[in-house]
Model the fold of this input.
Amino acid sequence: MSVSVSLTFDYSDGRISETFAATQTATNTEKGYLVQVPTLGTASSQISTATLSTLGYSYMRSLVTTTEATCTITFGKLDSGTMHDVATLRPGEIATLRLASGDYAAKAADEGYQLLIAAVEE
Done:
């Protein structure tokens, strides 16, 4: 099984312009795959990765449909019941990253927001 990730980042503010592009393909020896769509509230909710023996790439997308930038979902590492924020997604935004081993959680700026998270085994 392999996972391919492509990213193009364009930045321009009138004075400065920069573009970064990269493609990465990882070959995974395990076959596990996990997809969850938790409904979140303002308290952190654990995201179970128990069915994966070794965490690999993950894809996350905020399924919040409002356009207000304050309607965010925060994702983070869970340590002894405390969530340490890693990323914040605005409505419709995506994130792709390789997860380290351990526990994870997410929380929302308001009740009822949903997060799509898909992860594969290393």
